[in-house]
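Revision sheet: C-alpha cells.
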Amino acid sequence: MNGFSWRRLRAMVRKEFVQVSRDRLTFAMMIGVPMIQLALFGFAINSDPKHLPTAVLGAEQTEFTRSLVAAVRASGYFDIRATPASADEAFELLHRGDVQFVIAIPPDFSQRLVRGETPAVLLEADASDPAATGNAVAALSVLTSGALRHDLKGVLAPQQAAAPFEWRIHRRYNPDGITQYNIVPGLMGVILTMTMIMMTALAMTRELERGTMENLLAMPLRPAEIMIGKILPYVLVGYVQVAVTLLGGHFIFGVPMVGSLWLLLACVLVFIVANLTVGITFSSLARNQTQAMQMSFFFFLPSILLSGFMFPYRGMPVWAQWLGELLPLTHFLRLVRGILLKGYGAGEAWPHLWPLLLFIIVVMTVGLQRFRRTLD
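Predicted:
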C-alpha cells in the first residue's frame, strides 16, 4: 500500500463510473440540465418581446387612422387583438392583463390633421412589467414621422416638416417604471417555490435514510394523513417568508399594496400547498436526499425561466408559453402582481387561481398513488 499506484487509481475511477451509470436519475440530470438550459436560453428567452397584445380604441375609420394602425402593426411590437367599443371596456382589458397596450385615437383625429393641428394619440400601457413595454414604447417615436407620410400629400405636405401628431404615453400601475415594483412581488413566489419544494422533497427521503420510516409504518396512518402531516408545518414557514418579503418590499423598496391583503394571503396559501405537494411527490419518487435535491432543481430551473419572473412572458415563443402555463409560479406571479399593483378582487384573481387548484389535485393524486406503492 506504500506509494502512489496508478492501478488502484484506475480501479477507483472505474468504480465511480459504474456507480454513476447505475444511478439513472443522476446520469439523466447530467445530460438533461445542459440540454434544458440550451433550449430555454437559446430559443425561449427573449429580452425584446414583440407582437404584444394591443387594443385600439378609435371612433372613426379614415385613411389616416387606417394608416396609423397599419404602421403600429408593422412595427412588430404591437399585435392588434381587440377593438373595444368604449373606454371602460378598453380599461377592463388592460386591467385584467388581456392586452398590454391600449391605443386611443381621438374622434376628431383626421379633422385636426387636415386643419394643420397636431392631434394627440393616447397610448395606455400595462407597465407592471417595465421590461415588457420599454422597447415597444420607444419604437413609437419612429412611427410619428413616418406613419402618415404617404397620406399627407398636396396641400398637406408642408405640414410634414413637423410631426403630424404626437403620442401621449400613460404608464399604468407603475408610472415611473420602477423595476422593484415588478421584481419584489415576484421574488415572493420564487422564494416560496425554492424553499417549499426543497424542504418537503427532503422530508420523506430523510425518514427513509434515517430509518424512522418504520415508525410511521407502524402507526395507524393513511398515506393522505402522512402527506398532509408533512405539509402543514411548512405552511407556517411559508407565511413567515411571505411576511418578511411583504414588509421588506413595502418599507424598504416602497412597493405599493393596492389590493386586499387577505385575498393575497389566501392566494399565497394555495400556492404554498401547490409547491408542497410537488415536494412531497418528489420525496416519494426519490431514493435518497441527493435525488430529491436533483428533482427539485430540475423543477425550479424551468419555473424561474418560463414564469415571467426573469424575462417577459409574452416575449417567449408559443410553445414556451404553453410550458409556462403548467407551472404554478406563472399563475402566482400574475396573482401577486395583480393584487399588489392593480388591486385585483376575487373575481379578477379567480382565472389565475383555479389553475393552481387543479395543479394541486393532479400532483396530489400522483403523489398518493406513488406513496401507496412505497408503503407497500
